[in-house]
Amino acid sequence: MEKDFDRWNELKKQVNSGEVLPLYHAREIWWAHLGVNVGYEQDGTGPSYERPILIIRGFSPHVCLVVPLTTSKKRDRFYITAGVVEGKRAAAIVSQIRLIDTRRLINKVGTLERALFDPIRKAARKLL
Questions:
Q1: Is the pLDDT reported for residue 121 higher than 90?
Q2: Quick one: CA dihedral 121, 109, 99, 70, positive or negative?
Q3: What share of the chain is helix, strand, coil (3-state, %, to 5)?
Q4: pTM of the predicted model as reported, rounded to 2 decimal places
Q5: Beta carbons of 82 and 57 less than 8 angstroms apart
Q6: Long-range contacts of 20-23 (CB under 8 A, 24+ apart)
């Protein structure tokens, strides 16, 4: 599959120029501009290269640790159930954990229940 890095780079310039830093907290689910990434790194989708993410931890108003979410049904130790997100069953892809700038955050979807969040956080901690 051919990736459109040029189109993403144009949008990335706009995302980078954003001045508003959204307030966020751990356990929140947000849509975020994840962009077009190299190889098998999790990409965003659609014209804005968006994907839902789960915030694992905030480090500052500028940077947070996140895990991308997917609706793909895989049985794997790296895919941990995240319940239902916007009407679809979702899983956190803990192998794709990453730091992002909070300017990538688009809009908050909701907050994950602690009972679902704790196994995801523990799996992420285990990887690190």
A1: yes
A2: positive
A3: 25, 40, 40
A4: 0.90
A5: no
A6: 21/61, 21/62, 21/102, 21/103, 22/102, 22/105, 22/108
